Amino acid sequence: MRTAGLYFQILLALAVTANGQVVNQDENESSQNFVNHAMKLSDDALLTVEPKTLDQSLAALPSLTYVWHTNIVTTIFWVGEAPAGNNPIPNQASAWDLNWSRSYGGADLPDNGSRQGFVPAKFVPRQNPFYFALPYNDVCGGKTKPEASRVIPWFKEAFVKSGQTVLKDRWIAMRKDNRVCYAQWEDVGPFRTDHWEYVFGNDRPRPNLNRGAGLHVSPAVRDYLHLGQTDVMDWKFVESSEVPPGPWALYGENNPFVINRRKQQQEIAKRQ
Question: Per CATH, the architecture of 43-271 is what?
Fold first, then answer.
């Protein structure tokens, strides 16, 4: 019984540590090693779940409350983006929608001449133009990953069946200077699909070709937060009930604000 009590204390201490100060990744890695590491990334490697030790798993388990991931290098991506430069993966499809461009309504081109406010100039988006990608996918090979039920805070309430993601359309808050923006999770990246220790834990993003970027955001998010093509900001998960009204609440068949408005309109129409 004393051994069991000691083990519980160790687990508790580790859990508390996981909610504490974020530890910065090693800054002393040589430039050549950085490049060699980044260039070895491939589609097969992206789908590989790395083995974790017990200590690593405990340290990265999510807390009951969502905390800010601070000073995260952030890059811009968009629906319909073609592969180029440091972005080797096309975005006509997403991790969870093979017809992402079609579902969205077209390419969400980022240049100013192709936009009107926070949306494309040539069409009304059928999905929320405020979207993002993080480097974890809970599905691989048509099945839910083994660690997903253990590391995703909302897994139990959202799980339907193996192979169906519980991540798509979840919300995050993002802050840059004195502005806060909200967006929905629609794809996976940058570069990795297995880094749950960062997405749900206290790891830092891993080195990659985009200065160690740990978050992709859409042109609408870029414009709202006044971001550069590569920038640094903070983010955290939020529940949909915590998301305030804003331009992120106006468009999208996947948007709970839009869905609720339509339900209310239908109820009003029935009573007339």
Answer: Beta Barrel (2.40)
